[in-house]
Amino acid sequence: MDTIETPEPTTPAQRTALVVGASGITGSALVDRLRDAGWEVLALSRRASSSAGVRGIAADLRDPESLRTALADERPTHVFFTAWQRMPTEVENIAVNGGMVCDLLAALSHAPLRHVALVTGLKHYLGPFEAYGEGRMPDTPFHEEEPRHETPNFYYAQEDELFAAAERQGFTWSVHRSHTVIGYAVGNAMNMGLTIAVQATLAKELGLPFVFPGSATQWNGLTDMTDAGVLAEQMVWAATDPAGADEAFNIVNGDVFRWRWMWPRLAAHLGVPPEQVVGFEGAPRPLEQQMAEHEAAWPGIAQKHGLVEPDISRLASWWHTDADLGRDIEVVTDMGKSRAAGFTGYRRTEQAFAELFVRYRADRLIP
Ligand SMILES: NC(=O)c1ccc[n+]([C@@H]2O[C@H](COP(=O)([O-])OP(=O)(O)OC[C@H]3O[C@@H](n4cnc5c(N)ncnc54)[C@H](OP(=O)(O)O)[C@@H]3O)[C@@H](O)[C@H]2O)c1
């Protein structure tokens, strides 16, 4: 262990956060929260940018040399790891995403690290996308102490790299298992809020039905979601409160809902006339198929409304919304463990969506 001895940083101003994947849906919420709380914030991604109170660090997590060079003079006390890259198979996901955690922490062996927080997700319980919901499923609501699923999973590889580095480098760790994230990002891999907003825009502009794409189970059953803000709040809590050290936590908003209740409400927030709103009828109708013939209309819609992103592929992640809403199993998440440990963050899911749509509208990503 070659950690440099420094006094315990106890106030935000003494703490330096390195947010890894800082431009993503989770990372950007963390950057905002840490900056607003007075931390020194380093924001790492390939296309890094600096802003008031935030210093961008451009590095490629798949290039250990680039990481070593970029981080040689940095001395973060806390790391928030939120980066990932989607690969064609889970075998490749494991190699790439496990490797990124390993190489990032190795490049920080000189830093006075106190805590490293890693965000993963409910695929910890459900299995990877290519074997989603297959095999033995834990009973709902999902609890943190469930044994790992038998299917190989990149989250397990990331956890194992985290645990090994914590042992070697002498920091505490936390893992944050999120459900589908409601948050702000453009050009990222999985963004249900913006995907639904783009679907609604196409429906309004082209006079199409606004069709729920998912399964009967999701339409009728109880479920939950995770606002990026509450996820960031839990990660910062775990990174700074002894009760959060060396533990894995689920993180969802704290309310439950049924999509048959939520879908017409989201339509109303997005200005879709009620007569165009269509629920589950007989079978899932995935957005990838529903939207394929309408995507070409987006550049014209963007021009008509003065929108800033004419490339619909940077806004809508149809595949991911289809996968999450198409699940034929109940997905509900227990929040008791972190509540008992002292984390009390809470969001109302409908309000999280509504506020997100206002933000996307204000930034001219949707009309
Ligand atoms: N989004 C969801 O709904 C959701 C739900 C549950 C769990 N999760 C999990 O949460 C974790 C974080 O996902 P997310 O959705 O927040 O990610 P995201 O929005 O796709 O953001 C990924 C971030 O990682 C950076 N990045 C990717 N490859 C990189 C590389 N080679 N070098 C440096 N930076 C790189 C990206 O920036 P650049 O492209 O600029 O490098 C971006 O800042 C993942 O494990 C995911 O499975 C997500």
UniProtKB/TrEMBL annotation:
Matches recorded under Gene3D superfamilies: NAD(P)-binding Rossmann-like Domain (3.40.50.720)
Superkingdom: Bacteria
Pfam family, one: PRISE
Start and end residues of each PRISE-like Rossmann-fold domain: 75-367
Protein name: NAD-dependent dehydratase
Species annotation: Tersicoccus phoenicis
Lineage: Bacteria, Bacillati, Actinomycetota, Actinomycetes, Micrococcales
